[in-house]
Design a protein that fits this description.
Blueprint (H helix, E strand, L loop, with lengths): L14 H12 L6 E7 L5 H14 L4 E5 L7 H10 L15 H13 L3 E2 L3 E2 L4 E2 L7 E2 L5 E6 L18 H6 L4 H10 L2 H6 L4 E6 L6 H15 L8 H21 L6 E4 L14 E2 L1
Parallel strand pairs: 1-7, 1-8, 2-7, 8-9
Antiparallel strand pairs: 3-6, 4-5, 9-10
Length: about 280
């Protein structure tokens, strides 16, 4: 099983980085190990996962890749949250908009060597694909790669939620209901999923300020591959990225101390140093 093919606008990471990540993944115990890749939107998580999976297959290893982006709630489920909690919950992305039981069931099946169907989400349609189209992993695997934009992130302390971080929070969540609800969600079920990870690598962006451009490149790449289907305009995307800003800034601040390996990236997504010279925990 290869990694999911989310576009990210990049041409791939250097082979030395892929080799180091694979060695880290295969050295973990128990088997199958769960190797986590975290990083802000557009940082190259799916690309690195795909490269690791390909390299592993060249060595005769079986790899399953699960992306947090493929575990979003359906649009109907998010609209129910929007009606009952806050209108911003109609948008996929932030904590609370994922189907965590679905993700946990997939992880449990993969750990146990049971057949596992891995969910797939269509970002252009903003909807989960039907289960009949999900890839089936049948039999034991050697490594599970779990990748996601907020993997490993703990909730923020309550006082940090008071001041809005951007225009969207200031104008559309003035009383903080949405961000407090998302933070509460991050502090509960997500932490159970994070505990499944045996080693976490962080692809660390130089700052949050690169994210809108990185995510716009990703959006353009998806539209190139599906030109007949409309995607987001740049203004729509800039608003969309604001939904992720709070947790992304928090992740950039706290994950370097929590991840087993920090791969610092420049503005072009290239590693600044080899992982052997980078930060480890």
């Amino acid at each position: 099983m290869t990694a999911s093919s989310h576009a990210n606008g990049g041409s791939g990471f250097p082979e030395w980085l892929v080799a180091a990540a694979l060695e880290s993944a295969v050295s973990l115990l128990p088997k199958p190990s769960v190797f986590g890749i975290s990083g802000v939107q557009g940082s190259g998580k799916s690309t690195l996962a795909r490269q690791i999976a390909f390299s592993a297959q060249q060595r005769g290893l079986r790899v399953a890749v699960l992306s947090l982006d493929d575990c979003y709630l359906s649009r109907a489920e998010r609209l129910l949250l929007a009606d009952h909690v806050h209108p911003l919950l109609a948008n996929r992305g932030p904590p609370g908009t994922h189907d965590l039981p679905l993700a946990m069931q997939g992880m449990s099946n993969l750990r146990a060597g049971r057949p596992a169907r891995l969910p797939r989400f269509d970002k252009l349609a903003d909807e989960r694909l039907p289960e009949s189209s999900w890839p089936l992993i049948d039999g034991a695997v050697d490594v599970v790669i779990l990748e996601g934009w907020m993997l490993g992130v703990p909730p923020q302390p309550g006082p940090a939620l008071a001041p809005p971080v951007n225009t969207l929070e200031r104008e559309e969540d003035p009383d903080g209901i949405w961000r407090r609800w998302c933070n509460d969600a991050l502090g509960t079920g997500y932490q159970d999923l994070w505990r499944q990870i045996d080693a976490l690598w962080l692809l660390k962006a130089p700052s949050f300020e690169v994210v809108p451009a990185w995510r716009w490149q990703q959006e353009q790449s998806m539209q190139v591959h599906s030109p007949q289907r409309p995607g987001m305009s740049r203004p729509q995307l800039d608003r969309f990225v604001q939904l992720f800003e709070r947790v992304s800034r928090h992740a950039l601040a706290v994950l370097p101390a929590l991840a087993e390996r920090v791969v610092e990236l420049d503005e072009h997504r290239q590693p600044l140093r080899r992982p052997g010279l980078g930060q480890t925990r």
